Amino acid sequence: MVEQVSQADSDRAVMLAGVAHDLRTPLARMRLRAEMMDDARLRDGVVRDVDSMSHIVDQFLAFAHGGADRSEPVPVDQTCERIARSYRAVAPNAPAVQTHLTADAGFRLPTATLDRILSNLLDNAHAYGAPPVLVETARTPTGYVLSVSDSGGGIAPRDLAAATRPFVRLDPARGGNGHSGLGLAIVERLVLRLGGTCEIGNRPEGGLRVAMTFPFDAVPKDELHAQAA
């Protein structure tokens, strides 16, 4: 039974990845044609819609691809600060992205995985939450913690258990254009793949907090040594 369920999940992931991949080319053609429209208002509206669909396709592909991340492990604190700076430069509420990074240099995660975790959570915070958005790291006796929190309305307590279910939109107001209901599901899958845990909850002072814990050996030492060599 377990093998059958696993095979069914694998088949669905392959199908999802195939459909998403096949949609990329026609979406690119649509965007190119839209940019050639004379009516600026109509052109901008069509381009926004195509970009929204492209974002959903990218989320489908990210969710479907479940292979191990072989990208270079990087210091989490430095990467969090770098990504926060990039959001401050371009995002609407960018100045409100704050950091409190107290993990040591030993906290390392694969580059691609860390980028995807942070981009999904920061996009989620900006789309559904409110500033300030806080990115934190810390070392604990058993590992490391990485968390992202915002100051918005959070998630209704009755919906928290469904927050990481694929394709589930918790509130019609939280869907919007360009969102597939996969962001938190992708984050949880990435964290679990590294042997970590992902806890989603509302902050007492308001807003949503996603707290991820990682063991000290989330990236095996032999991989770190190989990268150093």
TrEMBL record:
Main localization category: membrane
SMART domains the UniProt entry points to: HATPase_c, HisKA
Catalytic activity: ATP + protein L-histidine = ADP + protein N-phospho-L-histidine
Enzyme class: transferase
Subcellular location(s) per record: Cell inner membrane
Topology class, membrane: Multi-pass membrane protein
Gene Ontology cellular component terms for the protein in this record: plasma membrane
Name the UniProt record assigns to this protein: histidine kinase
UniProt organism field: Burkholderia ambifaria MEX-5
